[in-house]
């Protein structure tokens, strides 16, 4: 059932830097990992999730990155091949998901046991691969930091992205919200059923949002940074919360012009500072949430915190309240195409890469933002969406959007 | 039962500016208010609370202040003398407490009905007069913004002040906390029973707090601003919250040197700005909470929000879980002495001023931070503290600390 080669090498993706300083992603081989040591788990990877941080990392725009060459990737699913001593919560053959700080994009990986989780039997490897980053982030934003309450008004961006879709599903757990979001206009039809007000991100939405919520918005979730920080703060109600959880607007369209990007980022960095006293005078708040930073801490408390939330998310999955949405699946060799989907903002839900595209094992469903047992789902999804099971099928959507 | 004069004038305190530009508080008379209009309530004031914002206002250090001369004061208690049309929740003769944006320090006041609340029958006028600002602030900080949870670690300042005492009482509602606070060392004995770690504010407490909470603190409540903003942020755990709810450190010891104060404030204002990206990278948050700003909004939603919390606080009072602590009582004529107690940080709990010191009606109890039915209270309070009733007594502590 696993894709382990009989040779001593395994396939992986590395981020390398050429002699001219250009960063690039490349499929290569690396020696098969040795046996897992104390507290470690060896996993045969089935599917990996792509995140916007992978795009930022591709261009060197993340803090505290390893020096190239290294294996990127923050989340993957697979089967446990072997366990080290003092590993009791998973065993050989278990289907698991992994959250890791880099190193996920390989055919086999060795990881510390703490962020390896057995997945529910109903969950496909692809669903599992795209779950951790998006749903941990969305859950923490809404329920740990945002403390969202019935009747409140929320604004968030990139409603069609991985975190956006997870937010949309989780928001249905809270009654009587007013939900406002931005997204690319070509995604509006797919998103409209579950979001009350949709705006294009590139327009200045402040006036429109003020009409909808004259007293202001209770919670703004911003994955863009830049101009949206100032806009978000301007729209907050008293005791309102602005949470920055990403910086994707720093990646401009001339994404390959590294100099241009760095310059833009640096300007924003220096200028967009907030006065504590202004927050005090206005009774507003600014939060930052950075999952990668939490992963890098590696303290017991951090790992317990994240593990606790993964289990809460699994319960919601088993109750049918959430369902990860896979937009498209690519092979490792197509990784640049996979990243291109995120750069072009063409995805609804998450993009997957697999070391060996498993055409016989899983089917990619049409994107939808709702869970399949939701009464509204028909309005955003195709006729095959009631098919809740991941069946054997050749229907793999090998998206050929190429921008890399 | 009320203190209404038979003449057409009433006593009040005004903040006025002399020809030389000096601001001063002065007791004077003003015409008796006319009958309350639609939605208004006329109140015979029994007792007024003093807040640090009154000190800041005295020196012109608050935003959006009225131009002198005006009547200061944010909270008072009294008896309803008359009601306008469309006032149904209070009636003539009711014992009430009032939250107002200025104008509380007068023998009679007319206020809008929304922030007038009938007080529990067990609550004395003095307890009522010092309740709104301190307990609304403390409740919102802990439960609305801070979202404090069992097992967390909290740091706050001015533990002996009005809000500090309210925080200490409310924190007992949450199990298993680690409570760290700063206060003047002469108050340590009175505070020690309910605060696990006490530090002097003027020392650099960062190293000590890091020893107590190596992973950092979940919640920092800062009424000082200035250096404590940076310290508070440095001490936060991931997803930790720093809340600025006051700026008392901006009032330096040379408080009468208005030029010096303004200069110091302006410097801090310009320099202590926070990068959104730094918050994002560190997964931390900064909140501001400013009760005065909420009062100035005057929207229906704001008033409903505050009224809802006042009722929650009253329930806690009736359950014996909180009890406002009156440090000392002064007459209107002694208002500068009353403010001096706060400037010198000599109070534990709140300071009261009364238009006519009601020596026969109430007794000031020895300061304590715990509720009287608390098992630990004996360690911070005197032998008469089991006396939960406000009895008729001449035992009024007319503190003569004079610094104004």
UniProtKB/TrEMBL annotation, chains A, B:
Residues 21-353 form the Enoyl reductase (ER) domain. PROSITE patterns: QOR_ZETA_CRYSTAL. Residues 363-404 are annotated as: Disordered. GO terms for molecular function: oxidoreductase activity; zinc ion binding. InterPro entries: ADH-like_N (IPR013154), ER (IPR020843), GroES-like_sf (IPR011032), NAD(P)-bd_dom_sf (IPR036291), Quin_OxRdtase/zeta-crystal_CS (IPR002364), SV-ATPase_mito-regulator (IPR052100). The keyword Zinc does not apply. SMART domains: PKS_ER (SM00829). The keyword Glycoprotein does not apply. Residues 383-395 have a biased composition (Acidic residues). Pfam families: ADH_N, ADH_zinc_N_2. Keywords: Oxidoreductase. Residues 369-381 have a biased composition (Low complexity). PANTHER family: SYNAPTIC VESICLE MEMBRANE PROTEIN VAT-1 HOMOLOG-LIKE. Belongs to the zinc-containing alcohol dehydrogenase family. Quinone oxidoreductase subfamily. This is Enoyl reductase (ER) domain-containing protein. It comes from Adineta steineri.
């Amino acid at each position: 059932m696993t894709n382990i080669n009989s040779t001593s090498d395994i396939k992986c993706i590395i981020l390398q830097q050429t002699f001219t300083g250009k960063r690039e992603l490349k499929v290569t081989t690396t020696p098969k990992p040795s046996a897992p040591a104390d507290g470690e788990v060896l996993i045969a990877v089935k599917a990996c999730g792509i995140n916007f941080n992978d795009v930022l990392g591709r261009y060197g725009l993340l803090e505290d990155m390893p020096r190239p060459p290294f294996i990127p990737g923050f989340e993957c699913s697979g089967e446990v091949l072997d366990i080290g001593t003092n590993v009791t919560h998973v065993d050989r053959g278990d289907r698991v998901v992994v959250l890791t700080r880099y190193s996920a994009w390989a055919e086999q990986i060795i990881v510390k046991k703490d962020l390896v989780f057995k997945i529910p039997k109903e969950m496909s490897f692809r669903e599992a691969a795209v779950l951790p980053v998006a749903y941990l982030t969305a859950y923490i934003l809404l329920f740990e930091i945002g403390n969202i309450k019935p009747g409140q008004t929320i604004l968030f961006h990139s409603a069609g992205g991985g975190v956006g879709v997870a937010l949309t599903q989780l928001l249905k757990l809270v009654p009587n919200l007013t939900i406002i979001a931005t997204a690319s206009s070509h995604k509006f039809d797919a998103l409209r059923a579950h979001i009350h007000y949709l705006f294009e991100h590139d327009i200045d939405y402040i006036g429109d949002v003020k009409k909808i919520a004259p007293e202001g918005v209770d919670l703004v979730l911003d994955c863009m940074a830049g101009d949206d920080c100032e806009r978000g703060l301007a729209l907050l109600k008293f005791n309102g919360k602005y949470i920055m959880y990403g910086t994707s607007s720093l990646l401009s369209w001339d994404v390959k012009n590294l100099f241009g990007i760095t310059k833009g980022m640096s300007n924003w960095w220096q200028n967009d500072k907030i006065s504590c006293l202004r927050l005090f005078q206005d009774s507003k708040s600014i939060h930052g949430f950075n999952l990668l930073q939490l992963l890098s801490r590696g303290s017991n408390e951090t790992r317990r915190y994240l593990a606790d939330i993964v289990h809460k998310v699994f319960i919601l999955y088993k109750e049918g309240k959430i369902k990860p949405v896979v937009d498209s699946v690519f092979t490792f060799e197509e990784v640049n195409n996979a990243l291109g989907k995120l750069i072009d903002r063409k995805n609804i839900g998450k993009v997957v890469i697999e070391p060996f595209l498993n055409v016989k094992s899983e089917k990619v469903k049409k994107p939808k933002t709702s869970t399949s047992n939701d009464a509204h789902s028909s309005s955003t999804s195709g006729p095959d969406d009631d098919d809740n099971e991941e069946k054997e099928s050749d229907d793999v959507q090998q998206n050929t959007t190429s921008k890399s």
